[in-house]
User: Fold these one by one.
Assistant:
Number 1:
Amino acid sequence: MSVQSDPAELIAQVEARGRRYETACGDGALVWRNWGSGAPLLLAHGAGGSWLHWIRNIDALAEDYSVWAVDLPGYGESALPAEENHRTISSALANGLVELVGSRLPLDLVGFSFGGVALGHLAMHYPELVRRLVLVDTGGLDTPRSHPDLRGMRGLDAAARVEVNRHNLLQLMLYAEESVDDLALYIQARVGTQARLNPIDLVLPDKLLKILPKLSLPVDCIWGELDQPHPNPPAQEAVLRRFFPKMDFRVIEGAGHWVMYERPEAFHAALRGILGNSCKAA
């Protein structure tokens, strides 16, 4: 998918090619979007994000899979969970999957950053719904973290806000300056205003690490070579391989944390290599 001059129009076009659904969540709705008609594949975004974290991946993956992208509770258009804990979040996701995907379960899960932690808990609480979990640049492993120089926007005019967004994206999400295009800036600004769930206590320091021994399904990983929030892919791999010695751990060269945005073609190849033929059946 090429980046057009009007990010809002591009997003509207991608959204129009799919279908939007709502299931119960807290006092409101959990919002899902679906594209394609292959076997189901669930994508979960990172902290402070929404389905837009996958904007450069949806069309390509929908050629083979039935892609489900959810706004996690408290993000995007989804309501906050009834309680801000993983069991409640997992329950909302599980109920939605049963309602929307139904007889086509179990399915493969792909979780980016906080989304990987959330889907890990879903797989623990509802193993019958899940075939495979793919973690993408995921925290909660009690590994060393960087401390990015993130800047606030209070009191800034529009031009200054764009530059702060650019700075923050390079500190946290993307590695190369040329990756911070108009679409990335637009998404960063949009999802930031929608985020209402604080993920810190749901991730740090070891909320994923603690549940890894309880996962009885295949777990694989995709990592950006130059990820800044969770740096040093070999160190991350070493922790995960203690629990999943046969794990497929793939590193995308030249990519930062938001690996599927910065290097989409390489990400798609890695994901297809991990999933193999498991998502090819109609």
Number 2:
Amino acid sequence: MRVLHHMLKMINIMILPLLLTPTVFAADPTDEFLRAEIAKTKAPGVSIAIIKDGKTIKSAGFGFANLETRTPATEETVYELASVTKQFTAAAVLLLAGDGKLSLDDPLSKFVPDVPDAWKPVTVRQLLNHTSGIFSLTALPDYFNPTTIRRDYPPKELIKLVADRPLEFPPGSKFSYSNTGYTLLGLVIESASGKTYADFLA
């Protein structure tokens, strides 16, 4: 019994320092890189996913999703993409054109019949390359006030904001960046595909 007691005492003496020593984990180089980039670029925050062989091996958020409310960014954060969506909208239109569901020279009215008469002959191509002459909703004087900019408008409600504005120039004659044009293209995609914009892109 004395031998057993002595052995247990020795084991405790050996284990106790291990329990009291703080565990040191190797720093994740991805985390270090992202934190450094956020500090360097003054970016509010970022969410990432690293996928290898079809499996997510890391997902995380860094910084803030909302500076005003100090909401931390997480792997679940949904961000407003704004005009980044235009490239996906354009690609979706070209996919539909490739499938014969529309032609770039089709008039807008073929897909969205309830638009102002002046907009009806505008072509899909002119919407894509910002030569439609349709007034851009973001050029409205009060568009960027907090009440307007934070509201989630259905596309048709957004279009109503500028429906009474005359064309800025004859379609195809000039270039002018138009967010209204890409809102209309979203409706063209829905009409031509028979799916919602989100479902078609997915």
Number 3:
Amino acid sequence: MPPTTGKNASLGPGAKTRHGQRAGLAYDDLRQMIVSGALAPGERVLEEECAARLGISRTPVREAIGRLVTEGLLVKPDGGPHAVHRISADEILEILNVRRLLEVEAARRAAGSPGRDDLLTLRRVFVGFLEGHKPDADAHMAADDALHERLATMARSTILAELVANLRLRTRVFDKGIIPDRFEPGCHEHIAIIDAVLSGEPQRAEDAMRLHLTGVADSILAHLKAQP
């Protein structure tokens, strides 16, 4: 076996594993800070400051920042430091249009696929949201993510699932307070999507998902037009 070369040549298997774990944790922490708004749109993201904040060295932070740039959550303006990507209204609507294309296909493919138990569980969650106390934003977001991710997985396409997950993540970091509250109509639409998929009717599932994402986009447009 040829000798190991390159910058990690001196690292044994255990050290490489620990390094990969630190980079993964740095990525998870930074991504959560971006999604939650702890790192605001336009805010600079400096390796040294992030490393100190997370209590790790700069190398795993550098790798995490590289992943976040690839995913579109961070940008690096010419001559400047990395910063949280400030997603414009036009960009969020473009993302929603692409999501509509992908997730309509995912819903169509999911109809009749294995996974009924998970969908039935999620259906009970959304019905509970409507019939019981309104959940907090985190609980609602978790159920929303779980449904869309489950449908993408049921579509039996790894690439499709990865694209949907990335675009949904970018939707989440749209400036806080801009996306209007669609809690009740969203719950009804999610239940309709689940019922269509469970019925094994591809066209019905496709139509339900299209209606849902069109409603989200239309609501955002109406909200933006109402701004002074």
